Amino acid sequence: MDLGLEGQVAIVTGGSRGIGHACAASLLSEGAAVALVSRDPERLEKTQAALEKSSGGTVIAVPTELRDDAAVRAMVDRTISEFGRVDILINAAATVTPTAFHELTENSWLDLFEQKLNGYARCLRYVIPHMRERSAGNVVNISGLAARQPHATTIPVGLNNSAVLNLTKALANDVAKDGIRVNAIIPHIIDTDRQDETMREWAVITGQTEAEVRAERVAKIPLGRMGTSEEVGDVVAFLASARCGFVTGAAWHVDGGVSMSI
Ligand SMILES: NC(=O)c1ccc[n+]([C@@H]2O[C@H](COP(=O)([O-])OP(=O)(O)OC[C@H]3O[C@@H](n4cnc5c(N)ncnc54)[C@H](OP(=O)(O)O)[C@@H]3O)[C@@H](O)[C@H]2O)c1
Known about the structure:
The protein is α/β, with parallel strands linked by helices. It folds into 2 domains: 207 residues, Rossmann fold, CATH 3.40.50; 36 residues, no CATH class. Helix content is 47%, strand content 13%. It is built from 9 helices and 7 strands; from the N terminus they run βαβαβαβααβαβαααβ. The chain has a 7-stranded parallel beta sheet, with helices on both faces. Helix 6 links the parallel strand 5 and strand 6. NADP nicotinamide-adenine-dinucleotide phosphate binds next to helix 1 and helix 7.
């Protein structure tokens, strides 16, 4: 199936590794050009070079701290000046630290949404007006299952992910008249570096071995395995494409069947 993404321009935040990286790879394989965004310039440049080599496509690396509003604006401006436009925004960057509610201080609570939501909102704030001017655009926000399945151990990530879904739906209805679609993906237990780190952190918290934590998590997945970031990237590329032209405000699960919501 041709997704019709040839020649489109995408900003992918969190593009240096994990799910963001897979989204970039999938969009590139469909002929889109990509502005790859994350903080560590060395890792970003390595990923840029590897993606250009494997896809033969055009990738620019734009090191950006998404906590910094001026830096986000500069990143969007640079992408527009290099490519002439932005058709697609994939919000995937996050670093959410698992912290028990009772350990959250006033300051760490106030910082909570800087770990994910605020970076997504900043990118939207600078990309949406540009898309509005062009009367076209597609946004995919990566949420996560804790958005819909609250648990005491996942409060920081859950709050961020719920807020991302709320923002997705509200914005989708607001900008539909401007030819812009806004959707979300709800992944769960995707085999990324961050997932490995989370398993290690969880093993320390529970006193289990990392292998026990992994086995316990996988046992809850009806498909019997963790997902791959490529499986998320492919759904994201499809959702951002004209093949999904009548889909907006949606939140699609990519979770091996774990979610019990219908
Ligand atoms: N993996 C899963 O199972 C899973 C499940 C549910 C939801 N998710 C969501 O999926 C998204 C990607 O997760 P992942 O597992 O692929 O994570 P990951 O491997 O940790 O990748 C996160 C990416 O975001 C970048 N990043 C983090 N904070 C940033 C900031 N302040 N400014 C700019 N870039 C930043 C990181 O690069 P730098 O550190 O160099 O900046 C990296 O490229 C996240 O929103 C996560 O919450 C993942």
